[in-house]
Specification:
Layout: E1 2-4, E2 18-20, E3 25-32, H1 44-60, E4 69-76, H2 79-84, H3 86-97, E5 103-108, E6 119-126
Parallel strand pairs: 4-5
Antiparallel strand pairs: 1-2, 3-6, 4-6
Protein name: RidA family protein
Length: 127
Protein backbone atom coordinates (compact mmCIF):
# COMPACT_ATOMS: atom_id res chain seq x y z
CA UNK A 1 0.00 0.00 0.00
CA UNK A 2 1.32 3.45 -0.87
CA UNK A 3 0.24 6.87 0.42
CA UNK A 4 -0.73 9.36 -2.27
CA UNK A 5 0.54 12.89 -1.63
CA UNK A 6 0.25 15.42 -4.49
CA UNK A 7 3.34 17.63 -4.86
CA UNK A 8 3.11 20.92 -2.99
CA UNK A 9 0.15 19.92 -0.83
CA UNK A 10 0.53 20.40 2.92
CA UNK A 11 1.36 17.18 4.78
CA UNK A 12 -1.84 15.80 6.38
CA UNK A 13 -1.84 15.14 10.12
CA UNK A 14 -3.27 11.79 11.17
CA UNK A 15 -4.60 10.70 7.76
CA UNK A 16 -3.56 10.29 4.12
CA UNK A 17 -5.00 12.15 1.16
CA UNK A 18 -5.21 8.86 -0.70
CA UNK A 19 -3.93 5.29 -0.75
CA UNK A 20 -2.91 3.01 -3.64
CA UNK A 21 -3.38 -0.71 -3.01
CA UNK A 22 -3.84 -4.05 -4.79
CA UNK A 23 -5.35 -7.21 -3.34
CA UNK A 24 -8.49 -8.65 -1.74
CA UNK A 25 -10.99 -6.04 -0.53
CA UNK A 26 -12.47 -6.22 2.97
CA UNK A 27 -15.45 -3.99 3.71
CA UNK A 28 -16.22 -3.43 7.39
CA UNK A 29 -19.69 -2.09 8.14
CA UNK A 30 -20.09 0.80 10.56
CA UNK A 31 -18.81 -0.14 14.01
CA UNK A 32 -19.91 1.72 17.12
CA UNK A 33 -18.40 2.07 20.58
CA UNK A 34 -20.02 -0.90 22.31
CA UNK A 35 -18.36 -4.10 23.39
CA UNK A 36 -19.45 -7.69 22.71
CA UNK A 37 -22.05 -7.40 25.51
CA UNK A 38 -23.61 -4.28 24.00
CA UNK A 39 -22.15 -1.98 26.70
CA UNK A 40 -21.05 1.46 25.51
CA UNK A 41 -17.90 3.24 26.61
CA UNK A 42 -18.96 6.38 28.52
CA UNK A 43 -17.16 9.03 26.47
CA UNK A 44 -16.23 9.78 22.86
CA UNK A 45 -12.58 8.70 23.11
CA UNK A 46 -13.61 5.43 24.74
CA UNK A 47 -16.21 4.83 22.06
CA UNK A 48 -13.63 5.56 19.34
CA UNK A 49 -11.26 3.04 20.93
CA UNK A 50 -14.00 0.38 21.13
CA UNK A 51 -15.24 1.03 17.57
CA UNK A 52 -11.67 0.61 16.30
CA UNK A 53 -11.24 -2.57 18.35
CA UNK A 54 -14.45 -3.84 16.76
CA UNK A 55 -13.05 -3.04 13.30
CA UNK A 56 -9.84 -4.92 14.12
CA UNK A 57 -11.91 -7.93 15.24
CA UNK A 58 -13.82 -7.97 11.95
CA UNK A 59 -10.59 -7.55 9.97
CA UNK A 60 -9.10 -10.55 11.77
CA UNK A 61 -11.88 -12.70 10.29
CA UNK A 62 -10.33 -11.95 6.87
CA UNK A 63 -6.74 -12.44 8.11
CA UNK A 64 -6.31 -8.67 7.89
CA UNK A 65 -4.69 -6.22 10.29
CA UNK A 66 -4.90 -2.46 10.88
CA UNK A 67 -2.11 -1.83 8.38
CA UNK A 68 -4.38 -3.23 5.65
CA UNK A 69 -6.93 -0.45 6.13
CA UNK A 70 -7.01 1.89 3.13
CA UNK A 71 -9.97 4.07 4.18
CA UNK A 72 -11.93 4.98 7.28
CA UNK A 73 -15.12 7.03 7.40
CA UNK A 74 -16.11 8.37 10.82
CA UNK A 75 -19.61 9.57 11.65
CA UNK A 76 -19.70 11.66 14.84
CA UNK A 77 -22.66 13.22 16.62
CA UNK A 78 -20.84 16.20 18.19
CA UNK A 79 -18.17 18.12 16.28
CA UNK A 80 -17.23 20.27 19.27
CA UNK A 81 -16.71 17.21 21.49
CA UNK A 82 -14.58 15.64 18.75
CA UNK A 83 -12.41 18.75 18.41
CA UNK A 84 -12.06 19.15 22.19
CA UNK A 85 -10.97 15.52 22.62
CA UNK A 86 -8.54 15.15 19.72
CA UNK A 87 -5.60 14.34 22.01
CA UNK A 88 -7.47 11.47 23.70
CA UNK A 89 -8.95 10.30 20.39
CA UNK A 90 -5.50 10.33 18.78
CA UNK A 91 -4.07 8.28 21.66
CA UNK A 92 -6.91 5.76 21.39
CA UNK A 93 -6.39 5.55 17.63
CA UNK A 94 -2.64 4.92 17.93
CA UNK A 95 -3.18 2.33 20.69
CA UNK A 96 -5.44 0.28 18.41
CA UNK A 97 -4.31 1.10 14.86
CA UNK A 98 -0.65 1.96 15.43
CA UNK A 99 0.92 4.65 13.30
CA UNK A 100 -0.94 3.62 10.14
CA UNK A 101 -2.95 6.58 8.88
CA UNK A 102 -5.14 5.72 5.85
CA UNK A 103 -7.41 8.01 3.87
CA UNK A 104 -10.08 9.28 6.27
CA UNK A 105 -13.18 11.42 6.41
CA UNK A 106 -15.01 12.64 9.51
CA UNK A 107 -18.66 13.67 9.12
CA UNK A 108 -20.97 15.12 11.77
CA UNK A 109 -24.43 13.56 11.75
CA UNK A 110 -27.58 14.46 13.67
CA UNK A 111 -27.79 11.06 15.35
CA UNK A 112 -26.85 7.41 15.00
CA UNK A 113 -29.32 4.54 15.17
CA UNK A 114 -28.15 3.48 18.65
CA UNK A 115 -29.07 6.39 20.93
CA UNK A 116 -25.94 6.07 23.13
CA UNK A 117 -23.55 5.96 20.17
CA UNK A 118 -21.33 9.01 19.75
CA UNK A 119 -19.33 7.63 16.80
CA UNK A 120 -19.66 5.06 14.04
CA UNK A 121 -16.66 4.10 11.90
CA UNK A 122 -16.62 2.08 8.70
CA UNK A 123 -13.48 0.70 7.06
CA UNK A 124 -12.20 -0.58 3.76
CA UNK A 125 -9.08 -2.75 3.81
CA UNK A 126 -6.95 -4.32 1.11
CA UNK A 127 -5.15 -7.57 1.92
Amino acid sequence: MRRLQPPGWPEPRGYANGMLAEGRLVFVGGQIGWDSRGVFAPDLAGQVRQALLNIVAVLAEADAKPEHVARLTWFITDREDYLARQKEIGAAYRDVMGRHFPAMAVVQVVALVEAEAKVEIEATAVV
